[in-house]
Amino acid sequence: MVDPSHPATVLKLSGYLAVIEPDRWTPGSYTLVVDGTPQSHVNLNDPAQLFFEYVQRIGHVIDQLPDGPITAVHLGAGALTLPRYVEATRPGSRQQVIELESDLVDLVREHLPWTRAASIRVRHGDAREVLTRLPAGLRGQADLVVVDVFSGARTPAHVTSLEFYQEAVSLLAPEGVITVNAADGPGLAFVRSQASTLLAATGHVAALAETQILKGRRFGNVVLVGSPRPLPLEWMPRLLAGGPHPAKMVSGPELIDWIAGAPIVTDATAIPSPPPSKNIFQVGNRRG
User: Fold this and answer.
1) What is 52-259's CATH superfamily?
2) Scanning 50, 72, 196, 218, which has the fewest C-beta atoms within 10 Å of its C-beta?
């Protein structure tokens, strides 16, 4: 049951209920829950604090980029956790955020406003379609592209294919990185195919997650990191040391073995990510 005191709205496009719930343990922090799935967590008092494990791992990747402001494109807005993080840790960054559900952005903007000083442009529409309409001058200029597109608890099929990733990767600067939040269960058939597909689009990929998830023993989030250039080896121990623990990263020959012939996904073969079991997001559980 939704507490009537919590800000909420029924999203017009999906029909999902979006609710902003206060974090009872951390003053000034809130969780955005969509269709019963915790989508985002933000700390308005300290936007540099990241809560969900997979978001922390993406934050560690961002921290490894060269110092100073960056150009970033975020596919999927949620509560703008990572755009806020980039602005807090790299003030002056230029950021584009693409979100399908306009009324979700309106809910967040009203109840969890971000600083007006931030150069964050929110564009409304389907992530893949809006990609084709971004300014031509952005092509080849992005230091960071974040793919975190979910409809409820699942990633839609059309943002999992090689054709989609090739469009997203076209935004990257020569040394830019793309991060993908992919969720899967035992066996990791979906995530390993996503790694294979991203590898075909970029040439260099690493996968980072909690150890038991990467071993395919339970449902969870895997962060895939891709780049047109080899990922710097010095990143790897720093990414692991940053936590959360226990953590594992696979890259290079180990990644090829981990993929183990998983097929490259195309528009013709793409399917949504698998649904989590119903108890994954019960009260007290957190995505990632």
Assistant:
1) Vaccinia Virus protein VP39 (3.40.50.150)
2) 218
